[in-house]
């Protein structure tokens, strides 16, 4: 069985922990819990007749007081760059983080995750910006950890991208 490390990175309160909980345990909690350091979960997934043990590293969110420790990313086969669609500044933070992550671990598969799609009437990110990001060749997936929209697709897509590089 293949084992692959995937990191969840982004600004604070973008839904990284909720996405992992929805994917691993099929649950969602309305209460907010700040991740301190890193929280590690795992899930076995089947992709292309292969069994993949996905080790998910949920890194604490970056804010004005703390930066993500890039050393947590070492050994990652891929990562999810999580944005809260209702807070535009989390997209700017994600774009900056992507550069730092790539400088640290090189070019590995990643997906830009536009989370909180269940709140699309409060969306603060314009489709022109999303289109421009996709024009760069990035994979962008809209998700909702709350109702599960796009969550399975998100992890399956990243797992496929990782396996395509093996």
UniProtKB/TrEMBL annotation:
Q: Which UniProt keywords apply?
A: GTP-binding, Nucleotide-binding
Asked if Lipid metabolism is a keyword of the record, the answer is no
Recorded GO terms, molecular function?
GTP binding; GTPase activity
The record, for SMART domains, names:
RAB (SM00175), RAS (SM00173), RHO (SM00174)
Annotated Gene3D superfamilies: P-loop containing nucleotide triphosphate hydrolases
Q: Which PANTHER family match?
A: RAS-RELATED PROTEIN RAB (PTHR47977)
Name this polypeptide is given:
GTP-binding protein
Q: Which organism is it from?
A: Komarekiella delphini-convector SJRDD-AB1
């Amino acid at each position: 069985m293949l084992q692959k490390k995937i990191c969840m990175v982004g600004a604070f309160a973008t839904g990284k922990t909720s996405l992992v909980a929805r994917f691993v345990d099929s649950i969602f909690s309305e209460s907010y819990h700040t991740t301190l350091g890193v929280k590690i979960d795992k899930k076995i997934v089947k992709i292309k007749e292969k069994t993949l043990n996905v080790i998910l590293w949920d890194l604490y969110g970056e804010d004005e007081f703390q930066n993500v420790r890039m050393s947590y990313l070492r050994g990652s086969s891929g990562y999810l760059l999580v944005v809260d669609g209702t807070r535009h500044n989390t997209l700017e933070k994600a774009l900056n983080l992507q550069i730092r992550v790539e400088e640290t671990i090189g070019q590995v598969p990643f997906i830009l995750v536009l989370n909180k799609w269940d709140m699309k009437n409060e969306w603060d990110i314009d489709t022109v910006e999303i289109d421009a990001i996709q024009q760069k060749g990035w994979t962008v997936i809209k998700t909702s950890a709350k109702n599960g929209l796009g969550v399975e697709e998100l992890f399956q897509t990243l797992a496929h991208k990782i396996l395509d590089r093996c």
